[in-house]
Amino acid sequence: MNDDAFWALIDELGRRTGDRDERLEWLREELLGRPAAESVEFQVRLERACERADTRAVWTAANRIEGGDCTDDGFHYFTLWLVGQGSKVYASVLADPDALADVPGVRALVGRHHDSWDDDEWPEWEELDYVAQDAWDELTGQEGDDGEEFLDAVEEAEDAAEAAGEWEEDGESRGPRPEGLAIPRLTALFPPGASGS
């Protein structure tokens, strides 16, 4: 699976109707129809996309949306959600995290306290991180195992991609959590201390 095939699956996932569980089931079925190695490749690309989104600016935007309560795990789940929004949204947010103000799923949260958000509304999607392993386990008969073989296969594929020079280091990493990065539209939608954040 190359990057184009990965994003084609993600873009179709974003277009599908139904709740998150139904959409993940569609993705799992898609992966089950392919060789097991494609589940590994999907996971490698998913992890790489999340790593590219792990920047100070994106964290600041996620934390603003979540009212200052974005944890480390929560931010990882946020990057999974961001990938799940599709290639266009993902690219626009990496270029300018304030573009999250235009995402319908974010706009639907405006003015509401995060305690009132339904599970499917939260801009976090932890379960997306497990769908490839579920498919791989079923395809390889590893169901019920602790996932070590899948994780080893992912690590080997990542090492091979890096050795082949497929991926270069990205410039910015998240590092310390800064305050005050420019996200004016998100700050207008989710003002500090407002009841909706």
Provide a count of the helices.
10
Order of helices and strands: HHHHHHHHHH
DSSP summary, beta strand count: 0
Low-confidence segments, given as residue ranges, are 174-178
Indicate the radius of gyration in whole angstroms: 17 Å
Q: What is the percentage of strand-forming residues? A: under 5%
Summarize model confidence as the mean pLDDT. Answer: 89
Biggest sheet statistics: none
- Tell me the quaternary state: single chain
Question: Could you provide a short overview of the structure?
Answer:
This protein has helices at 3-15, 20-32, 36-53, 56-65, 72-84, 87-95, 104-107, 131-140, 148-163, 184-189. It has 197 residues and is an all-alpha fold.
Can you walk through the features of this model?
It holds the Pfam family DUF4240. This is DUF4240 domain-containing protein. It comes from Streptomyces tanashiensis. Residues 1-137 form the DUF4240 domain. By secondary structure, the protein is mostly helical. The chain contains 10 helices and no strands. It starts with a helix and ends in an 8-residue tail after the last helix.
